């Protein structure tokens, strides 16, 4: 019961982080579901797509009301993400064998492989957030310019990664929007939330036919609390510097990644 209460509290924290910085919080969803609530990693990545998708959609609507969302940019980035995330969830994840390989009496299972890949992704997210001060924070109205080829490639890669680990990929999307489309950082945050929402929900649709059963009651409660958190985060974003918040959260993700590596490889 205590673990469940803590899990629901962290759901609000996940939503708050999404509302504040447009990404990062979703990468906590899978560890919370797996290690705290005891959900199978493959199922957890599917649940995470639903939770992150609905929560990000709520946040995107809030940013849209403040005119901090570029719909055209979201569409351009999302199309390749739609394709890759659906294909990965529908065909790639189910095709991964339950026992991937053996290494000196150590069995690397599908669940272990997904968590190790997830921890590696967390390392990249952590370093990206710690170094986020290098991203241009200028809020002036620059003309939006698109590098269509690079946006397509980035969108496809982000979709594939999201499909594998159930994270939104905001830490990859926001720098891409700032650097490849010349979006101001706050506009990039709102646009990132819409991209995360659409591709995550499409990825979850690819899972529906592969899952034997879905705990809808749990999903709705967890998602509702995360949505409350995203309203809180969106409100706090008016007063808190995303730069400092990202740096601190980056170090937290670094510790979490190290914990997952130790949990899966050492503390067996």
Characterize the structure shown.
The chain has 268 residues and is mainly alpha-helical. It has one domain. The chain has helices spanning 2-21, 29-36, 41-65, 71-95, 110-130, 148-165, 170-180, 185-208, 216-236, 242-265; strands spanning 99-103, 106-109. A two-stranded antiparallel sheet has the order 1-2. The longest helix is centred in the first third of the chain and has 25 residues, at 41-65. The chain is globular, with a radius of gyration of 18 Å.
Amount of helix: over 70%
| Number of separate structural domains | 1
SSE topology string = HHHHEEHHHHHH
Strand content: under 5%
Amino-to-carboxy terminus distance = 24 Å
Gyration radius from CA atoms, angstroms? 18 Å
Give the mean pLDDT: 79
As laid out across the biggest beta sheet, the strand order is 1-2
Sheet with most strands: 2 strands, antiparallel
In terms of structural class, how would the helical and strand content be classed? mainly alpha
């Amino acid at each position: 019961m205590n673990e469940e209460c803590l899990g629901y509290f962290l759901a609000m924290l996940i939503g708050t982080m999404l509302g504040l910085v447009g990404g990062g919080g979703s990468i906590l969803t899978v560890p919370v579901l797996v290690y705290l609530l005891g959900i199978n990693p493959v199922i957890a990545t599917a649940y995470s797509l639903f939770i992150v998708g609905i929560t990000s959609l709520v946040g995107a609507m809030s940013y849209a009301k403040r005119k901090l969302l570029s719909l055209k940019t979201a569409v351009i980035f999302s199309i390749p993400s739609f394709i890759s995330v659906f294909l990965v969830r529908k065909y790639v994840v189910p095709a991964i064998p339950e026992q991937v390989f053996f290494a000196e009496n150590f069995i690397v299972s599908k669940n272990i492989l997904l968590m190790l890949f997830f921890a590696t992704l967390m390392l990249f997210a952590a370093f990206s957030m710690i170094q986020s001060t290098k991203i241009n924070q200028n809020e002036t109205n620059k003309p939006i310019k698109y590098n269509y080829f690079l946006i397509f490639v980035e969108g496809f890669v982000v979709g594939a990664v999201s499909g594998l680990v159930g994270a939104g990929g905001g830490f990859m999307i926001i720098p891409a929007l700032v650097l490849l489309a010349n979006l101001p950082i706050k506009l990039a945050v709102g646009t990132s939330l819409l991209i995360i929402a659409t591709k995550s929900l499409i990825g979850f649709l690819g899972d529906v036919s592969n899952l034997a059963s879905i705990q809808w009651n749990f999903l709705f409660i967890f998602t509702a609390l995360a949505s409350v958190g995203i309203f809180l985060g969106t409100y706090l974003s008016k007063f808190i510097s995303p730069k400092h918040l990202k740096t601190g959260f980056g170090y937290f993700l670094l510790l979490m990644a190290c914990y997952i590596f130790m949990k899966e490889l050492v503390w067996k």
